[in-house]
Amino acid sequence: MSTSLWALRAGDQGRITGFGDALAESYRIRLLELGFHPGETVSCLQAPAFGAPKVFRVANTVFSLDDEVATHINVETDLA
Amino acid sequence: MSKIILIGSPNSGKSLLFNRLTGLSQKVANFPGITVDVATGKLASAPDLSLMDFPGTYSLQPISGEERVATEYFSKALDDPDVTQVLCLVDITRLEKSLYFTLQVVRECARHGKRALVVANMMDVLARHNIEVDLEGLAAEIGAPVLPISARTGDGLDAVNDWLRNPVENRSENTALAETPDTLLRGTAHQLAGKYGPRGDLLVKTQARLDSFFLHSALGGFAFFAIMFLLFQSIFTWAAPAMDAVEAGLGALADTVVPMIGPQLAKDFTSDAIFSGLGAFLVFVPQIFVLTFVIGLLEDSGYMARAALICHKPLRLFGLTGKSFIPMLSGVACAIPGIYAARSVDSPMKRLLTYMAIPLMPCSARLPVYTLLIAAFIPNTTALGGLVGLQGLAMFCTYFFGMMTGLIVTGLVSRTREDHYTDLPFVLEMPPYRLPALPPLLRNCWNRCRHFITKAGSIIFTVTVVVWFLGYFPNYGADLGASWLGQIGQVVEPLFDPLGLDWRYGVAIMTSFLAREVFVGTLGTMFGIEGADENMVPLVDQIQATGLPLASGVALLFFFAIALMCVSTLAILARESGSYRLAAKMFLAYSAIAYLGAIGVFQLVSLFTG
Ligand SMILES: Nc1nc2c(ncn2[C@@H]2O[C@H](COP(=O)(O)OP(=O)(O)OP(=O)(O)O)[C@@H](O)[C@H]2O)c(=O)[nH]1
Ligand SMILES: [Mg+2]
Questions:
Q1: Within a domain: residue B412?
Q2: pLDDT for the residue B188
Q3: Are residues B330 and B209 in the same domain?
Q4: Are residues B112 and B227 in the same domain?
Q5: Most exposed among B8, B292, B383, B586, judged by the fewest C-beta atoms under 10 Å?
Q6: Do B225 and B195 have their domain in common?
Q7: Are residues B94 and B29 in the same domain?
């Protein structure tokens, strides 16, 4: 199923498929530099309550992203 | 002299390595974005080589103004013939994060004929988990030597020193890279990180386990409040006695020195200008030390990034970010360490907003003023059947009012800013939890205090002497009311008339520019009461006896909650933001709001109390 990174719950995994058009170019570049590449598997480690930024792991690094960014990252959750 | 540049992604250990190699003490902390300007030092092992510690960036393609400074500095350095080598630091435990940047750096070095040395840091962490990495293979692919080190333990530093002193020619190897455009480089970095990066979940596992506690919806919130409570406790239990000791020490020193001085004028100058001037800013030192220490502990342990995450959502409503939380929180004790702490807010725009909010946080210097006014105007009775004391309630409201005003100001200002949407995104690296390293932390606390004393001290001291001068002459301190300061007070009395205050309050307000708590002492002097700052009761009685209306009291509370009456804060604000204009603008704006608002409050309360 294709959703946004922000829709993942703690423990979920997804493969990045691309970025939404609304995401500023500079943000997209930064995300790529940090390792959020299309094709990469991202897992959601923590999804704290009250809409706080969620914690994601990509490669061996852990980042927290807030909804303003994470809703524009598209992921595929069927990792067959 | 030839120069070496030290560069790498945020939080990779550059400053720690810099300190190791030079013997200096740059601030080290486990939070991305700690270093904001370039520090230079001589190599301890080769004094003819100087090393420059750069702020961390994730790439040579800047997306914020701050990063642009770092990258422009870097490209300028590449054109500098004195720069012969570039030391690029990578955090080997998280290779993905740093490799793209490393490749960019190696490429630029190849293009500009500089020698590049890649240093793989945090090898101790890999060793602890028995993870091996193929650094030779990596070196061959990126075309630059890769040396393993641990900046924490010092392993491998000899090899780095040897290399820096006698670099082996290695330029020929990276010619292929020189032609590669950024887009391809990104792919290469990704692929290399997959091939050579440390494998296994071990590194992230402990972190995830602790996070599931500290970021737990209920437990995490509880831990958060417990930690913040301890932070405040530490200020009162550690800093307060030290502050008393500083005051007592200065007092004792003054008592021994002053009687030895002959002429009355010199005597008065020493006791009232020099010692009060010193006292006015030295009392801040323990507070700065303790707050810097506790915040440093939180930063270095990795908890700060979690606290930023927890507070991000509510602060975003007011145009701030989670990273503004700690600076504002320290502002509740004292604005100065808060302003220092705002360095870690990476977005320049959010940092500006944080600066605006900090002076409105109810700092501890306001406490004596609030205590005096509340004791004088609010009856010492209880409400709601004895559940709440009216005075305590008033104190709480005043505190709360200050914090809310801070948030409202940033909320409003952020909405008027164009760059609101092109700002940095909230993508915060969650550093692993680490045991804080005490020596660099203590050194940093010491550096902060020294910076405060040397940089703010002169400004504060000058202002103190000027105020003393105005208050002392022309009648040699016999009567503050008849001094030049008193005369100015009488001249500007019409200014305080709309608040229902006479010139004595005007003078007290003017002197409180030195520090808010001076208000109490000055007012005491004006009413002819010695030592009002120690025991307020006679002063409270005096104020009540003069029949000052309640409306004036509330107006004064309002004024002190908002006005930026603190020369130390202004001095540090100007230093840290690099802009005297910002400090001046904030002072004027908050004074205007405080003054006009106080008039409004006076009118309003008068309406109800008749
Ligand atoms: N275990 C371990 N920790 C290290 C090592 N090197 C640095 N650290 C820790 O990593 C954290 C970051 O170190 P800094 O020197 O502040 O990093 P920096 O690259 O200067 O960071 P910025 O100035 O924010 O870009 C600190 O908590 C250090 O104690 C190392 O070799 N091993
Ligand atoms: Mg640093």
A1: no
A2: 85
A3: yes
A4: no
A5: B383
A6: no
A7: yes
Choose, out of B196, B350, B426, B433, the residue to mutate when testing the contact with A (most A CBs < 10 Å).
B426
- Residue B123 makes CB contacts below 8 A (sequence gap 6+) with B92, B148, B149, B150, B155, B156
Per domain, the residue ranges of chain A are 2-76
A62 → closest Cβ in B207, B322, B421: B207
Tell the residue nearest (CA) to atom 9 of ligand 1. Answer: B13
Q: Do B31 and B173 belong to one domain?
A: yes
The last residue of one of the domains, among B173, B201, B229, is B201
Interval B5-15: pLDDT, tens? 999 888 899 88
DSSP letter (8 states) at residue B172? G
Gap between the Cα atoms of B253 and B242, Å rounded: 16
Number of domains observed in the structure of chain B: 3
Pairing state between β B115-121 and B146-148: parallel
CA distance B524 to B508: 9
Are the beta carbons of A48 and B310 separated by less than 8 Å? Answer: yes
Both ends of chain B: CA-CA distance in Å? 77
Closest among A59, A69, A15, A61 to A39, alpha carbons compared: A15
Given a cut of 90, is residue B602 above it in pLDDT?
Answer: yes
Please identify every residue whose CB atom is under 5 Å from ligand 2, which is an ion.
Answer: B 14-15, 34-35
Q: Give the Cα separation of B563 and B561 in Å (integer).
A: 6
pLDDT at residue B176 above 90?
Answer: no
Residues B339 and B466 in one domain: yes
Residue B268 has pLDDT above 60, yes or no: yes
Rounded to whole angstroms, how far apart are CA atoms B356 and B564? 10
Q: Ligand 1 centroid vs B180 CA: distance in angstroms?
A: 30
Atom number in ligand 1 closest to CA B16: 15
Does one domain contain both B368 and B517? Answer: yes
Record: fold of A2-76: SH3 type barrels. (2.30.30)
Q: Please check whether residue B41 is in contact with residue B86, taking contact to mean a CB–CB distance below 8 angstroms.
A: no
- The amino acid at residue A48 is P
CA distances from B51 to B43, B45, B101, B135, B358 (A): 6, 11, 20, 24, 35
Q: Letter for the amino acid at B106?
A: V
Interface confidence, given as ipTM, is: 0.91
- What tokens does B425 get? 């995104």
**Residue numbers of the domain that contains B161:** 2-201
Share of chain B above pLDDT 90, in %: 22
Q: CA–CA separation, B168 vs B497, rounded Å?
A: 78
